[in-house]
Structures are given as structure tokens and as C-alpha cells.
Amino acid sequence: MKRRAFLQVGAALAGGTAAWHGATEPAVGGDPETAAPTTVLVTSAQVPSMRRLADGLAERFAVRLTAPEPVSTELPFTQSELEPGEALDALVREVGTIVVAGPPTAAEDEFQQVDAGPRQLFHLLHAAASAGVQRVIYLSSLELVSGYDPAYMVDEDWRPWGEIDRGYLPLQLGEFCCREFARERKLQVVVLRLGSLVTPETEPPAEERQVVLQERDLLQAVRQAIEAESPFDARGLQSWSVIHILSHAPDNRFPLQRARRLLGYEPQSG
User: Fold this and answer.
1) Distances (CA, A) of 239 to 18, 19, 265
2) pTM of the entire structure?
3) What domains does the chain contain, in order, with CATH numbers?
4) Is 6 in a helix, a strand, or coil?
């Protein structure tokens, strides 16, 4: 997936280290038939694929959107540059889960992406931790681990390596930022490393079809990551979890065992 495609899609968004073990707040419990729906904040609403994701999530959760520029949506929306202050504190108040589509910036200049994106993400995570947000789902990319020999089976414990397109550098810096909050037990972070997202606006070249992700599979994975319980045993989510997500493909070198075990994920698209 080329840099331009990444910038256009936005949501086809490192740190593949083993999960840390430790206590975080458990997910919201109670009778699912009577409990209030989880409030979910979705960033980067200026990206069409993120708005479609939010619409899908809204069938099950109370969804809010935010973006640094105005967007057209029927869901509750707040325009925000994610700068620290009362407005940002209000944005994350009473939110259970935040879905972050990479560093949440609309900047097109490469330097601004590297500077502004991770900085705004840090402000968002700091406010989320202070507000008691339970979980952050960070949408990353399998591009970060695509530099290994194609003969290798690359699971979630492999670190980003090789010549990563500079367009993905903000994404990798964003993962590092999320990891530090998880390491300090301030937030529970689930990193979903996504295949190249297929949307109505984009279609990946033939050579990349083994690592593609259909939008309905993205929606499934994010729903499951929001709803996943967090028991502190070998089967449950820890304070930091990296999970591969892609649609079914033959000879896939990015195994999905962790997605199946932790989330119950099963690709619906081929």
C-alpha cells in the first residue's frame, strides 16, 4: 500500500511486543439487556471510512465523532484540534472507549503529520486517562511489519522492521505513544494492525490482495475489541495488546490466531 493511498484512506492504519501483565479496570459489566450502551468516541471523522465505521458502531453503541475540521454526519459531532483544555476534557468525559484512526490530524504536510499527529494523540490519551476512559483502540497497519522476508510467519510479537514508507512514520510514533500510556497502566490499549483497507474510494493493487481488509471485517473487529472482556489470565486482554486484523486470504503470513482467541474474530470477507 503506497503512502498516498494511506493518506487518502486514513483508517488503513507499532510496537509488536508481548502483552504486559497487570491490573487495569475491568470492562463495564452488568446485564447486557439492561445496561446502558457503551459510549464510543471515534476520531478522524474527516475520513469517509471512519464515518462509515462510526455508523456501523452506532447500531450497538452510543457513538460520538470528532475531527479537526467540519464534517457532515447525523451522529453527535465535535470539531476539535485535540489541544489540552476544557474542551478536550469535555470531549472525553463519560466515554468508555476511544477508537483512534492513527494520529488524529488532517495535516497533509509530512512534517506536520510527524509533529502534530503524535502530539495531538498524546493530548487525547492524557485527557482520556484523566477522565477514566477504559479502553483505547488504535487502528494501526500491517505495513509496519511488512519488511520481513515474505517466507516468515510474522505474528504480533514481531517489531516493526525494514524500510517503512515515511508516510507511516506518524502511525508508528502513535503506537509508541499508546504503548507508554499502557505501560504505565494509565489506559488499556488494543492495537489493531490492519491490512490494506478496501473502500469505495480505493482498491489495492493485485500484489497486495493477500493483506487486504474489507470494511465489514474492520467493523466486526472494532466491535469485538470494544466488547471484549478483560480478565487477567492467559486468554484475556492485558493493558497492551497488538492484534492482526485482515480479511481471509490464502498463504497469509500474518496469522490471525490472537484475533480469534482474544476477540472471537473470524473474517467474513474473502
Assistant:
1) 11, 7, 19
2) 0.82
3) 3-18+31-263 (3.40.50.720)
4) helix
